[in-house]
Amino acid sequence: MISDVSLELFRATLDGSKPSVQKRKISSINQYLYYQYQNGFLDRFYRLAPTNTPSKTTPKKVDLQIREFPEFYAPIQSLGQFIALLILEFGFTFAEIQNLKWENFNWAFRILTVEKKGIKRILPIREKFAIRVKGITNADELFSKSRQFLYLELKKYTPNTSKELREQYILRQRKSGKSIYETAENLGLSTIVTLERYYK
Fold first, then answer.
1. What are the Tyr recombinase domain coordinates in residue numbering (predicted)?
2. What is the pTM of this model?
């Protein structure tokens, strides 16, 4: 279903792509949206605005300050809070949350097994996270929800975006002594390019 929210979710998937790639994909989407509107499939003309890609001469500054989120670690009261914890603790994207299975959380050994594109990685589970969420009994129901649902639930709970919380995960990894390569491995990234600005 096409909506302002779904278009913003699509825009989020372009983060980290080359400007030329972003421009090409946005142009294709806008052509499709215009066709849908012109033929009566949409009640109004939706348009995805160009991304504000910073130039090489004025690189976007990264806030390297680690922030505390004590409210996230209060007893779980909402789906949004659980989603926020998953992103802050593991650096997950919405797509990765959708691929989780509750059976892969090993509470005895405090590890989480995640598979992405056929590659498995083992992530440590912090006690601080475990004591808040291990009693949840219907997590698989959440993991089966759409990205739009996850986005809206997170938005209802906190003004912090998934990207901001993911950045906080990266900064915590760096502070704990993890190298840029270890952080990339934990995030399931094939290169370190998108992490370089956090390790300068």
1. 57-200
2. 0.70
